[in-house]
């Protein structure tokens, strides 16, 4: 059979991308999809409908496909309901989609990129005969912590259900900050919740042992990453740092929620570096009415202007008429255009949950951080921010005295500002950008060669 070289060239091979269905996971996948589309692939991002409906119209050039999660419409999409859907309902629908895309007239499915927290999709790729590449959406250090679970079990640091057996620090690798056992990412909620989350992580780790390569959404010099990969106590797959990609794509950090743009006009009226920006992300559970109330009172008495991102579930703890009373000095919004807010000259610091995307945005905008980690990898991120990079301080509580003292300390630290400039250059400077581009290009070249060979075989 004669091969039409033009047809082979025109048919872009498909890359199916499966993120964990949450803002902090979907956003970097979309950025990676944008980068891959510029390298000759046709990315297809697959999410359940409740995510698909918020992103499909925002990402021209990227195909977004939805699959049913099988949950009742009124069921809250929290960690446990999503885990149930991923394990029991979504695999058969993804398999049908993969087989459909792989059997079409296009270039076929070259490979899949699967978020490790969506490890259920790894088996789907294997069953369909499609190569699968893992994707870790946060710091490599957080992956090291999960990979160290077997060692923690063997040393008796944690029980078989993940419960800490002592209060000692955990050392992840060469010259890394120790992590307290109370900050392990599965220690959220009551005992049943903690055991369930630990089971989720051990299952994830077991499934990912089949992977030969993992793309990591972190910069190459995260913190002695090359040295830590030489740690012989843990066998790692091929780790490829390719982040952050925000400055190499068209999409930046798109958000699911509608943004209140009016806060930017209000920001224009504030003094330079005077405003406190507060946001705990879109995924974490409410911190509780008492903590919200304490923080509200502390902000009011601090005299600092502020923008506070506070969803409806969180607002029950606000003092009576707080939003109206603080209107001139503080804005409480359901969601803010975070990138624009952080880049604004009026913002002096950012009180954050230390989600990875938010951390990177803050460094990109050279904004100092007040850290209040709540769940997951946020504790690891916080330790780096406070102990290694020293671009922020950790807050233990929202008592008035502590909030006031922390605000004055972080906003008055000139040396912290200098460290932020250096950190910004380290992550977003030319040298790092070239390494990220080279890593991504080498990865693409490897899979492009395999794809071209497969295409020629099909055409023969």
Mean pLDDT: 88
Number of helices: 19
Q: Let me know the largest β-sheet.
A: 7 strands, parallel
Strand content: 5-15%
| CATH topology call of the largest domain | Rossmann fold
Mind explaining what this structure looks like?
Keywords: Glycosyltransferase, Transferase. May glycosylate diterpenes or flavonols in leaves. This protein is α/β, with parallel strands linked by helices and 460 residues long. It has two domains: 5-253 and 429-459, Glycogen Phosphorylase B (Rossmann fold), CATH 3.40.50; 262-427, Glycogen Phosphorylase B (Rossmann fold, 3-Layer(aba) Sandwich). Helices cover 44% and strands 15% of the residues. The strands form three sheets. Strands 3-2-1-4-5-8-9 form a seven-stranded parallel β-sheet, sandwiched between helices. A six-stranded parallel β-sheet has the order 12-11-10-13-14-15, with helices on both faces. Strands 6-7 form a two-stranded antiparallel sheet. Strand 4, helix 6 and strand 5 (132-136) form a beta-alpha-beta unit. The chain is globular and about 65 Å long. The N and C termini lie close together (6 Å).
